[in-house]
Amino acid sequence: MNKRKNNNSDINVPNTIKPFKVKFVLVFTLIIILSLIARIFYLQIIDGPRLQASATSQQTLTETLSAKRGNIYSSDGQALAMSYESDKVYVDPTEIAIENREIVAKGLADNLGIDYAQLLDKINTSTSRILVEADVEQDKITKIEEWKSNLKFKTGITIEDSTSRYYPHGTLASTVLGFTGSDNQGLYGIEFSWDSFLSGTAGKSVSLKDASQSEIANSENTYIAAENGYDLTLTIDSNIQGIVEKHLAEAVDTYLCDSGIAIAMNPTNGKILAMADYPSYDSNNPNTPNSKLAETWDTLSTEDKSNALFRMWTPKAINDTYEPGSVFKLITASIALEENLIETDVEKSFNCTGYYYIQGEDKPIRCWKYYDPHGEQTLRQALEHSCNPAFMELGLRIGKETSYKYYDAFGLFDKTGISLSGEANSIFYDINKMGDHELACMSFGERFTITPIQMITAASAIANDGILVKPQIVEKMTNTDTGEVTEFKTEEVRQVISKETADKVTSMMESVVTEGSGQRAIVQGYSIGGKTGTSEPRENVDEGYTASFLAISPVENTQIVLLVILKNPGPGVNHNGGVIAAPTASKMLAEILPYMGVESGNNNTTTNANNLSEEDLY
Hints:
Elements: H1 2-46, H2 48-59, E1 60-65, E2 72-73, E3 79-91, H3 101-112, H4 116-123, E4 130-136, H5 138-149, E5 157-166, H6 174-177, H7 189-193, H8 195-198, E6 203-208, E7 222-224, E8 231-234, H9 238-254, E9 259-265, E10 272-278, H10 291-294, H11 302-313, H12 316-319, H13 329-338, E11 350-352, E12 355-356, E13 365-366, E14 375-377, H14 379-385, H15 388-398, H16 400-409, H17 436-443, H18 452-463, E15 467-469, E16 474-478, E17 485-487, E18 492-495, H19 499-514, E19 529-535, E20 546-553, E21 560-567, H20 577-596
Parallel strand pairs: 2-8
Antiparallel strand pairs: 1-6, 2-3, 3-4, 3-5, 6-7, 8-16, 9-10, 9-21, 11-14, 12-13, 15-18, 16-17, 19-20, 20-21
């Protein structure tokens, strides 16, 4: 009996343990379930928005749709700058796993034909967007797409439709046009100044992609079309520009000058018909030094090379300042006539003895022809002879207050406002610190500096019946999406001198060409007016002389004003404006005037220039 009880007792022990195990399992299971619920709650509710955003970010592919950059045309319809479709390859290192970066670098390097090691260095950075290659041929794009499709990981590679820039005429008007960078953004010239209109507004395409970069079915896509840039039409005539550049280059090379500048302008509306620098550069290859710069390129430091390229790209007609020399006598004569201080043809108005003595000074200022003085002269003769003493006397008679009043009216104290970036301004004496010596020298164009565009704009006011007009280089712009055209109108600034005074000055300018120092500017069959100029900087004599000539044609109802500037003629070359700048202007006008349809007659058909010494052509 006892034994049986013991056996029954042994059999009942497990029954007391089993409920405990069940409870343990149930509790453990409950804890697991609660943990899972908590985790799901955290993931779904608390961290859900972040995870959803992360997933969407990984699945979302945003592609930039490049706007087509607007073209630039000359006034005669020639394309000066054009855009064509191309592709750019970008890579985002932040989207590439570290273990996959070598594969991506190798694949791109092989398909694009670029350096693998350099690309890998770029990818192994924290930069979020790297331009791998611009202007990529379509066959290479196809190979990259095929290679990407075989990969099972995210490459971070983006291929964007883009446009590249091309300048059909190479060096023509290059300092005016400028160029664009690898991102198709304007860097210099018109390309920079008008970049906001030319560049347009990029669009974008947003779509959902899976890990293999295939579009997810039934996903919602967003597409915003790009707004293409405006086309610009310049006032520059490509034929006139070509003529001016050809003869400017010939003059610089023939007379061994450092450089040359030329501007042609319609005085009635301010339109720039040509604006040239020599030497210039090819806008398609802006980092290639021009022929002049190439002579010393290898001897320059990195910093000097950068400065030299910047200088090469700069439009000197608006950026350089210079002493205009005797061309400025046109301004002095205009002021004196407008103020009724003198008349054009009154005998014995001046008496040149070869020197001019300023009261209170020991040393006189001599005439360029001090060795054979001009003697008694009218104002017309003084301008024909470019006599400094006569104009010093005239400048002092005018006075500094009146002179500065007219300088301001002619726009010489302010930038012209031409729509090209980098325009410099003139440098004049403070009127309160200016004495008779400075005023006398200023009367014949020295002791101050102005820009070529300021000089030709002021002279154009004389040729335009005394009305100053703002220079204009962009004629119109066209919305390439809608076809809407915006034309820019002539901006008259002010009446500076009367028409009567302007007519007197232009008449004397014609005499300068027919009888005086500008005789080498004669163009057979056309009426030409002009003024020679020769100046030497006082602060930096090493820059040498500047020879210049300003021409107008026809003298009545002038259609073109032309300014030619030749800097630092070489050793043994005569530096006088009448000797080297005047004949250069003549060659230009001989081709430009027939092209413009200006009627020829029997004006200026004879010349006494061959009977004059080179000194007489000052």
